[in-house]
Design goal:
This is Lysine biosynthesis protein LysW. Pfam families: Zn_ribbon_LysW (PF21344). The chain is built from no helices and five strands. Strands 3-4-5 form a three-stranded antiparallel β-sheet, with no helix packed on it. It has a domain of about 40 residues: Rubrerythrin, domain 2 (Single Sheet), CATH 2.20.28.
Length: about 60
């Protein structure tokens, strides 16, 4: 089954176009195929991406 592309947004890291699928939702994490950065879908309409937040270990705090 082929996924339908809804739109494309610019990678905030390398400026490459990144496809956002039709069933994508805000908050999902996707990957830029050019620079391999993890990106968070900030908005589906209009399409916008941000760098995904780094998950840090709290070391028991």
């Amino acid at each position: 089954m082929q996924k339908v592309m809804q739109a494309a947004a610019e990678c905030p890291e390398c400026a490459a176009p990144v496809a956002i699928e039709a069933d994508a939702r805000s908050g999902e994490i996707i990957e830029c195929l050019d620079c391999r950065s993890e990106l968070e879908i900030a908005s589906v309409e209009p399409p916008a991406l941000t760098l995904a937040p780094e998950v840090e270990e709290d070391w028991g705090e």
